[in-house]
């Protein structure tokens, strides 16, 4: 390559812009000195932070909402319990399944997750009611500060929550994302690819399954191997809200694995998907306890963890193409760290023009 081109791969720094000029360290230190827990004036515990229409001040859906800190909801609140995992993400009453799918996929790579979440935060050491997260906004990383007052009704979190009742990283991350979008209601309806991009700064690609390339399964498997984030959804074709096999329409699912298993001398391509609700799973072939699994060795069953009743399920790629409508893939770029050596796209700048090439295409 000529001297006019410079490789930008591998350039990454934790430096980020302070969102709304709020400095986490300064604000926390101030709260610790004063003995007062942080109350965020930029995103107050008030009706306007919930929404403007369905979640507006006069909406019956917001009647009785109280903003409560985790320490008032349970005896031993934790930021993260035993590591952040995809099963921590359970959707609440907000229609932001697309965001939940993005967050669940985010947990598949600990380095990517650590770019967004500062895991050293806690409700004990230096606790001041303030937390922060990094999000990709307007072409740069921004550090977003939130207080830990969360919307509840009857002592239960109104929106996203963890399967573990005393874990709060998901609820606080959702609050930070609501803050940069002005309200929780602004998160209703969207595409998982939006969340992927805002959590990674990655490059997106989309495939319609009605005219998908013949090698799409291979593309998906390689993307997951690179550390890419994947989601899928079903378009609405009838009035039914779900298919007869219990797949929900107009609902984002995370794609968390792609594997091939040998069954009766033939290779079967399988995909693992997750419903952010934490329940309501596919009931067709290769679903939990389906007869197809009787033909697979116990070792493979254990490796695939096929029987967990947590909203995650396996299905054949053949059925996937019939049931679902699209696949969205967010590929990581050098600015996004990954613990996978194959997890980067190569980014070059040549005479002011950025070109992005998958490193798998260059090999």
TrEMBL record:
Residues annotated as the enzyme's active site: 97, 251, 275
GO MF assignments: calcium-dependent cysteine-type endopeptidase activity
Matches recorded under InterPro entries: Calpain_cysteine_protease, Papain-like_cys_pep_sf, Pept_cys_AS, Peptidase_C2_calpain_cat
SMART domains membership: CysPc (SM00230)
All residue ranges annotated as the Calpain catalytic domain in the record: 37-333
Matches recorded under SUPFAM superfamilies: Cysteine proteinases
Gene Ontology cellular component list: cytoplasm
Sorted UniProt keywords: Hydrolase, Protease, Thiol protease
Gene3D superfamilies the record matches: Cysteine proteinases
GO BP: proteolysis
Family the entry assigns: Belongs to the peptidase C2 family.
Protein name, entry field: Calpain catalytic domain-containing protein
Taxonomic source organism: Astyanax mexicanus (Blind cave fish)
